[in-house]
Design goal:
The protein is mainly alpha-helical. The chain has helices spanning about 15-25, 25-45, 50-65, 70-90, 95-110, 115-130, 135-150, 155-170, 175-190, 195-210, 215-230, 235-250, 255-270, 275-290, 295-310, 315-330, 335-350, 355-370, 375-390, 395-410, 415-430, 435-445, 445-450, 455-470, 475-490, 495-505, 520-535. The protein is about 80% helix and about 0% strand. It is elongated, with a radius of gyration of 30 Å.
Length: about 525
């Protein structure tokens, strides 16, 4: 053996250590581990976190190689205690690989009680999920679910169902994800435990948003925020605020969403939640992009990507890269944008993130479109629509269809364009997205005009105007309804009605931070129509 400045003795090779260890009788090994455990507990009294893993290992070996007696049970209890302590430290430090190993040992420890084993399986599955180990997460969570159901642990059953819901969503099985979520909701309603109710509201709110049900999503997430405030749970509050703020920003309600994200960031920074900080950084980038502060948005996305790479949360890295590509594309930095989208797609495909693949194809297709590569755009959008439809991400399906309609328009395929827009409207209706439906409907007006079906165009524009008056729709849609009623009425020979609608269209005002007003060509059309019909 070789003297060391740092340690009294070192073996020259690990094999020598293993041989020396194996030559000792089991009873002696057990006694040595018991002595080491006692010494460490005495030396680190009050600071056991520093050597929790070593303590757990010594307790395990002291217990495993001694006869079953009261002393063995004492070692078993210590093993459980120190495994829980070490796993908790690893989770807080986001050392997820180590946490998974410790939690697996805890779940298999015969001295751990049922509640501890099920909780260990749940936390192990969640850690595997964060590392995008979806197969491992699925197996572990199902094992925990079976145990929870066997012993009637309803609260844990609901939590495990929610994690399985997240696995299903990330692997492109949104309908299955909603089924798990609904099962968890039913349990929460029967238990009426605030912590379980919060978890259901928080996770289902995110799922509903991905499905395209924006109103239902906001309702769930707002209730989650309110409940977290009542519970005084900072981590839960920050997470709910992040999701609620992001949902509002994506629904063009940036003024409401930005303060929520700012509060979430402040709380997450204060409590040191690195995982949540990575998610918030990405969402703050979306806010900056919506405010047209593109350089700042790009910096935020890159910061979020680096942060999430360090943590090993690769599904968030995919989202960061996709958003980075969108911002670079808006600045017409197409080569950099393509590189970001392609890297995100590569990772998403490697991890089996089907929904992320669908959205990545959609955003890369939009870059190809701006580069004038329309046929390539059309093929990508078709693949995107199929992938998103298969995964159940219907909000993305409608987006892909609308953009494919634009590509068909560029290629002069008017009937194909109309088919895509009608299908996009149907999808929006199915998921309760009225604003999306009317947006798709309005896009059919120009091809209808070119096809000369003026009466059909007038009736559709009139229905849109009625919807604007009865629902909260954008000022742009109000203008478009009046514009097309004016144009089609003029074509049908209804001069007075055409003049009335054209003058009303001219009264529509731009929206600060939102609709910038009509295009120059549309404004000129209305001015010409008013001048011609007014003079007549």
């Amino acid at each position: 053996m070789n003297p060391s400045a740092e340690q009294d003795y070192l073996f020259r090779h690990a094999i020598l250590q293993e041989v020396a260890y194996s030559l000792q009788p089991p009873s002696e090994r057990s006694e040595l581990h018991a002595n080491a455990l006692e010494v460490l507990e005495r030396l680190f009294d009050g600071a056991l976190e520093e050597c929790a893993i070593e303590l757990a290992q010594h307790a395990l070996r002291a217990r495993a190689e001694s006869p079953v007696d009261s002393r063995t049970r004492s070692f078993g209890r210590k093993e459980v205690r120190y495994l829980k302590l070490a796993a908790g430290i690893a989770l807080r430090r986001f050392d997820l690989g180590r946490a998974i190993e410790l939690l697996q040992s805890l779940a298999e420890c015969p001295f751990a009680d049922r509640a501890t084993r099920v909780q260990a399986l749940r936390e192990c599955g969640e850690a595997a999920l964060d590392l995008s180990r979806f197969s491992q997460a699925d197996v572990t969570l199902h094992k925990g679910l079976s145990e929870a159901r066997k012993y009637g642990m309803r609260g844990e059953e609901a939590r495990l169902l929610l994690h399985l819901s997240r696995v299903a969503y990330l692997t492109g099985k949104l309908p299955e994800a909603m089924t798990y979520g609904d099962q968890a909701r039913a349990i929460a309603e029967s238990l009426r435990e605030p912590e379980i109710e919060f978890a259901v509201l928080h996770d289902l709110g995110a799922l509903l948003f991905q499905r395209g049900q924006a109103k239902g999503s906001q309702l769930h997430l707002d209730r989650a925020v309110a409940l977290a405030r009542r519970l005084g749970a900072d981590g839960s509050l920050a997470s709910a605020l992040n999701r609620a703020g992001a949902a509002r920003v994506m629904a063009d309600q940036t003024a409401e969403g930005e303060p929520m994200l700012a509060e979430a960031y402040e709380i997450a920074t204060r409590i040191g939640d690195q995982k949540l900080l990575g998610a918030i950084l990405g969402n703050r980038g979306v806010v900056l992009r919506r405010q047209n502060r593109l350089e700042e948005a790009i910096e935020s996305y890159r910061h979020a990507e680096q942060h999430n790479r360090q943590l090993g949360i690769m599904q968030n890295v995919v989202t960061n890269l996709d958003n980075l590509g969108v911002a670079l594309g808006l600045m017409e930095r197409f080569e950099e944008a393509s590189a970001a989208h392609e890297e995100g797609l590569r990772i998403a495909r490697e991890l089996g993130l089907q929904t992320a693949v669908g959205f990545g194809l959609l955003n890369l297709a939009l870059i190809r479109k701006r580069q004038g590569r329309v046929h390539e755009t059309l093929a990508m959008l078709t693949e995107s629509e199929r992938t998103l439809r298969k995964s159940g991400a219907m909000r993305g399906v409608s987006n892909a269809l609308i953009n494919r309609a634009d590509s068909n328009h560029l290629l002069g395929r008017r009937w194909a364009m109309l088919r895509d827009l009608v299908e996009a409207g149907r999808v929006c209706l199915d998921i309760g997205d009225n604003a999306g439906y009317w947006d798709a409907e309005e896009r059919t007006f120009r091809p209808l005009m070119r096809l000369g079906v003026y009466a059909e165009l007038y009736e559709r524009a009139k229905l849109l105007h009625q919807a604007v008056e009865s629902e909260v729709l954008s000022p742009r849609l109000e203008y478009e309804s009046l514009y097309w009623m004016a144009v089609s009425a003029d074509k049908l020979g209804n001069r007075a009605e055409a003049l009335q609608h054209a003058m009303a269209a001219q009264q529509c005002q731009p929206q600060p931070g939102g609709w910038p007003g009509p295009s120059k060509a549309d404004a000129a059309d209305m001015a010409e129509l008013v001048a011609r019909l007014g003079s007549g």
